């Protein structure tokens, strides 16, 4: 997949960090997130895990600027995030719903660039390039509904890359895919991080996936959710679905996280 | 390609077998009829052809269709434009919605006389009536369509900072298009009725005028011919509209999620054929 190298943006901007500072979120009387602090360094991959209902998606929506926090805040570089920002590309869990069914794959990928004022030929060329980079050469003229779930999610990733996002936020991106497709897409994420200058934040309930993808796993738990643990994953850059997952260190990380999610510390 | 043709023929046969049978029945039953009011269908047909190509019927029909086309286009442009605006402005919608529903509930045919009195004879009042009647279903459907845009798409558009003009034309409009087309389909039927009725009063041309004029002259065959022609017109227009709709909403009908109804119909037919 040396094709990846062609996707680098022309003038590679310095990637910015993503910082969460004292972030809390309540819906009325229901407190979902409480005083979260988190920093995603440039180029880092972070997984956020937690039991379902822990507020992972709420956190991601706050990170992306789609949801205003109740207190505290999110910063990209030095700029506070109040609305969605150009540095962040989102990949939704609902890949089907996030594609415009009236647009072909390459139009879907190119559409956000149109909003940036990129000319048609340039944005379509870039869309094709990015589709190739996610392993979908020559399917740009298909409609989303002519593609499998895995392909649609690849298109969604291509869209985030084409958008020149420095930070990819992924919300349970592979949760509704079959195991084999999920493995392929996890490897795609790893290959993107190796070849592109991006930081990646993946929210998932799948602990194997969290450990496999990340440099650091942030464990959320409790009501309201707080960060109960941060686990540095020291498995190197080159990972393999079989070898890495058979590594004793992998099992140790996995066990440590699982234990905390199953039995949250008493408050 | 062959399957496309076969599909088309099957569909055509399925949609016209009943009208054809009824026409044949009418033809047979009315054959040799001596009733003044119910002349033989064959005679009506002959009159229709003669009036259409030799007499005045063709010209009158074209005049009426022109009114319908202009009125419908005005209604589509205004209905969709206001629908896109009102559909997005939730607070505004809640304020105007009761009024809109009241205005929609006024039968458009009931306002024909007053409009004719107010605007006089000529094409303008007829176009106005057609446009007004067609406006409501298109407006209300557009509003519903815009409001029904899936939250996931709205969120995607927000996350990728799609500017409003692009959002309106490339997200809201296509998302609402299935509903808009449904509104236009209703409007077409309403417009056809208004096209005829608006020519019943203070008109000196048009298919509606032709029918009333023929009936007051007691020209029963001409009256029948005009009436039949309106029916055929309605059928042709709605078939034409379906074709346009299918083109325009290609993505919608092909998408498994939306087409599940259609698909299951097709499957049922296949299963039936296999027995």
Any overview of this molecule?
- The complex is a heterodimer of chains A (267) and B (275).
- Helix content of chain A is 34%, strand content 23%.
- Chain A contains 8 helices and 10 strands.
- Chain A has a 6-stranded mixed β-sheet, with helices on both faces.
- In chain A, β1 and β2 form a beta hairpin.
- In chain A, α2 packs across α3 and α6 crosses α8.
- The termini of chain A are far apart.
- Chain B is mainly alpha-helical and 275 residues long.
- Helices cover 83% and strands 0% of the residues of chain B.
- Chain B has 12 helices and no strands.
- In chain B, α3 runs parallel beside α6, α3 packs across α9 and α6 crosses α8.
- Chain B is flat.
- Chains A and B meet through β6 and α2 of A and α7, α8 and α11 of B.
Number of helices of chain A: 8
The helix-strand sequence of chain B is HHHHHHHHHHHH
Task: Let me know the largest β-sheet of chain A.
Answer: 6 strands, mixed
Strand arrangement, major sheet of chain A: 6-7-8-3-9-10
Helices and strands of chain A, in N-to-C order? Answer: EEEHEEEHHHEHEHEEHH
Determine the mean pLDDT of chain B: 86
DSSP strand tally of chain A: 10
Proportion in helices of chain B: over 70%
Could you give a short account of the major beta sheet of chain B? none
Helical segment tally of chain B? 12
* Protein chains sharing the most extensive interface: A-B, 25 and 23 residues
